[in-house]
Amino acid sequence: MASSSFTVSRYRQPERSTVTRFHEMLPEVPEVVIEMDAGDQAGPGSGIATSLKTDLQGGIGGGDEDISWRIKVFGSNSCAKPHGKGWFCFVWEALVDPTILILLVCAALLLGFGIKEHGTEDGWYNGGSILIAVLFIVSVSAASNCRQNKQLDKLSKISNNILVKVVRSRSQQNIPIFDIVVGDVVCLSIGDQVPADGLFMEGHSLLVDESSMTGVNDLVEVDKDQNPFLLSGTMVADGCAKMIVTCVGTNTTQKSIEQTPFQARLKKLTLLLGKFGLVVGFLVLAAQLVQYFTEDSPDENGNKGFNGSKTKVDDVINTIVGIIATAVTRVVVAIPGGLLLAMTLIHAHAAKEMMAHCALLRKLSACETMGSATTICAATPALLQNRMEVTKSVVGAESMEGRSYTSIAGSVLQLLQQGISLARGSVHKLFSVAPMDDAIHSWAVMKLSMDMDNSTQGLSILDVEASSPEKRSIGIVVERQQDNTNVIHVHWRGDFERILSSCSHYYDNSGQVKVLDDEQRATFCQTAKGIAPGGLRCIAFAHKYFSKEEYKNERVHRKVPDKDLILLGFVGLKTSCHPGMKQAVEDFRLAGVDVKMITGENVSIAKSIAMECGILDNDESIITGEEFRRCQEHIRMQRADNIRLMARSSPLDKLLLVQSLKQKGHVVAVTGDGINDAPALRLADIGLSMGIQGTEVEKENSDIVIMDDNFASVPTVLRWGRCVNINVQKFIQFQLTVNVAAMTINFVAAVSTGETPLTPAQFLWVNLIMDTLGALALATGKPTDELMKKPPVGRSDPFITNIMWRNIVGLASYQIAVILALKFKGKSIFGVNENVVNTLIFTIFVLLQVCNLFNSRELEAKNVFKGIHKNKLFLGITGITIVLQVIMVEILNKFAHTERLDWKQWGACIGIAAFSWLICCLVKFLPVPKKPILHCLIN
To answer: Residues in domain Cation-transporting P-type ATPase C-terminal (predicted)?
Structure first.
């Protein structure tokens, strides 16, 4: 190998301890790896392959013992990730919250004063109940947060687990990137991510994008002589190659879970409500303190007011601490801390369900953004099945229908068979077998009696210009051993129009080379057009001889010569849309989402595909990429909405269309069709990549990966996106109803009587229902068919809609009326004492929130019980809440400061709470204005 211009500092080395251990077993390896610039005259692949016990053609053995040995010596292809937060971390985070700390201090003081005044047996209840309630809520919230953190971490690992093509045991196979080991032979092609550090072994025209490592946007050429180094995390921009892995794990990075825009808006809402709750809590605190210091006569419960010097200091401190504890619990309840928890639960549940429907969520924000999508720009691979079949063919200027291969001149047949075999990659095995390659190969074997081994025997590949969605062709340079060593053969295969434009001659049926004049060119084009209306794609084959001197002169900028070629023939490939494609497009239209087909195919083929998929309405909505590109910006803006099909489009054309649509206010989703679609995927609001045919560049720049490459799976993503948004709205309605009711009740009661209906422990129990249990109950709602019959909701629209405000005000008003009526008239209504009234208030208020959970299941529908039997988690949580409430009233009555209730009183509590279902139904008959209420305040 020639002396490399790169130094060791550019090449990451194994850990010193690893090198030492490996040196004991294979002492020559450190000299190859660490002293790489000293080199080996045979090239980087030879010496190191032997040292790593790797067969350059067959790869490593790949057995369990072999893999274990390599992992033990060199490590695995993942970094040691810092341990995720455990339960105790979340507990600690909750305990250091200022409001919780104040509550704990108040609880400790009440506990001390209570024991001092009433003894250990009875004096611990006031402070102890607050202390236990706080610890219980903190523990439950921490457990929920811990569970969701682990679930999101699991989803993150799945989204980052890229499949890599390797050669093991002489066969090519796909394995997860985390399973790559030192010594693996990795096959790289356009769009692949380099999975680990390694050395170039063989390949052609390899250009690598190292901007993620170096920050330089220029592509780096990698070859066997001058620069054989491949760095983990870089992307293959062009060409193909095999590499041998020399170092693993050092480039793994742990991504943090990003905060979505929707979560940012929820955080603002939380802060706003927290400030409002703080003001109300302060007013209630002030009212209670004023009542205490101005009333010197005992209240109805025998609690003494402040009476100057006659009141003991301990009593004053005890009372003030109790008032402060009550005020702080109100603030805790007022701050809807469960909003962000609910958001996490909803996202995690949606991501899990979407994964079951072949959609991998790479970014949390994509799910909620998808719910607002107004336009989807779909590329051809997403629309068509991953299977092709050759149905028509032309060889030697004549159709092959009804003809045998024996009618073709031997020289033409041999060249065509070589071109097919080489393009399929059967010799160098650097290309994966695409459906098109497979279809053409099967046709050649059946129709041309092609023998794969014989057709490429004696060929030596000199160079390859790999195919891409933009070039739509592949060029291969070979040298035949039986030829004069001065002869070079160039084979091209690709899109018919692309190849035909590069041809100046063609082979006739007898094998003679003839000039491709305008008349014959028009004849070929007419034949190709006859193929296209059937939904076929035309692929042409061409060839040319060069002397070595001519080849060197023709080969400019490392490109395979593609001028003055000789046409061998062309074939028509038939494919069809995915099953359910028309229904998917119809589903989008019912949902108010416009579907546009963006393809590189010619107009005739593209039109046939679009009509089969149900995308195209009329010819007026067809445009070519060039036409759109040449339009002025304001014309593009005008035409963007009406376009249904853009044929012969380049990545730049797709980018311009996405820009125009976004400038008009659309929320745009885009499916990728190649490595150069990365800018369009990044610019789009939602980038969709294909899990099977998509490159790693596409996946890296996308937000959602469609694992089955089926566009018919995308409506499911839209359904879950809308479901995420609606589930968040349901929880917001639930929490705000409780907040409005609780704050209003406490304020009125404190100002009127100096007391609040609920104790601190009871308030904390209500807070647990609001935050944790409520979030769990409402987070798992599933999408309904009605969601797909509504138009998209703008991302800037207020997420507290007029319908939600109507429901919140109506239901909160009922709760306020009931609780205040009981507070002021409960004794006379039920004929009981104050303690029983307070227990009735506590029980009814909790049961009202249970009913509120049911009411929040449907924002508009009047039947809130529809499909309730399918949501077992919801039923389980409501059941647990009711059981715990009964236990607090009937068993833990001293702890909860309650009195036992008889059956009639329980029946009254249940009846009053259940009546809110009827109130909810009646409220939903009220019309709401279209203009958003408090739009400016919320946003």
So the answer is: 756-926
